[in-house]
Amino acid sequence: MIGSLRGRIASKVPPQLTVEVGGVGYELEAPMSTFFHLPAVGEEVRLLTHFVVREDAQLLYGFATEDERRLFRSLLKVSGIGPKIGLALLSGISVEAFAMCVQNQDVAALIRVPGIGRKTAERLLIEMKDRLAPADGHAVGAVVVQPGASAESEAFGALVALGYRPAEATRLLKAAGPGTHSTEELIRRALQSAARE
After folding, report:
1. Of 30, 38, 57, 157, whose CB count within 10 A is highest?
2. How far apart are CA 144 and CA 99, in angstroms?
3. Is the previous residue joined to 15 through a cis bond, with omega within 30 degrees of 0?
4. Where are the domains of the chain?
5. CA distance 10 to 19
6. Could you give the angle at the alpha carbon of 14 between the alpha carbons of 21 and 24, nearest 5°?
C-alpha cells in the first residue's frame, strides 16, 4: 500500500501527473480540486494517495487533503461508483458542498456533475448519508493530452474526461473569457460557468 508521496513534479497534464521520488516516477490521477493547488513542474509536492489494484491495472490516485481522500474512499464503497466517477465528483464539487448535498438530499446539485445521472445521485445520497463525517465530497475523470499542448487544448481534454461533450467543453472554455490563462485556471473558470447554468 502506498499512503503518500513526497517528491518533485515531473509532469502534469490534468488529471494526470508524474511525481518523481528517489529516481522513480509515480504516475497518478488527481481531482481538479487537488490540481488547482499543485506547484509548478520541477517543484516539490506531497500528496496523500489511494492505490487501486485491478485485474488489468494498478492505479494510483493523489489528493491534497485527507478530507478528499477520505471522501474518495467512501465513494468507492457505494455500489456502481468507481474511481472515475469518484474523481469526477471531487472535480465538480467540494468536499463541503458534497456533505451539504447529502445533508439536504439535493439531487439537483449532484446531477450537474458530468457522469452523474439521477439514479446514481439518488443512490449516492442514500448510501453516503450514514458514511459522512461533518465534511466530505469531490471528483474527475482521465484524459490523454499530448505533451506541449496549449492550455486551451489541455483544458478541453480535461473537460471531456470529466464527461462533458466536446461541443459543451468548447462552449464552456469560450465562456471562461478572453486572455491568457493557465490550464488549471481555464478548467476552474469553465467549471464555475457550468455550475452557474
Report:
1. 30
2. 31
3. yes
4. 4-63, 66-128, 151-196
5. 6
6. 15
User: For residues 79 and 75, what is the distance between their CA atoms, to the nearest angstrom?
Assistant: 9
Chain segment 83-135, per-residue pLDDT in tens: 988 998 998 888 888 888 888 888 888 888 888 888 988 888 888 877 764 43
Asked if 137 and 106 touch (Cβ cutoff 8 Å), the reply is: no
Question: CATH number for the 151-196 domain, one of 3.40.50.1260, 1.10.8.10, 3.30.450.20, 3.40.50.790?
Answer: 1.10.8.10
Cell of 194: 457550468
Contacts of 53 (CB under 8 A, 6+ apart): none
Cα–Cα distances (Å) from 111 to 3, 33, 76, in that order, read 31, 18, 18
Domain 4-63: give its CATH code.
2.40.50.140
User: Which CATH fold topology does 66-128 show?
Assistant: DNA polymerase; domain 1 (1.10.150)
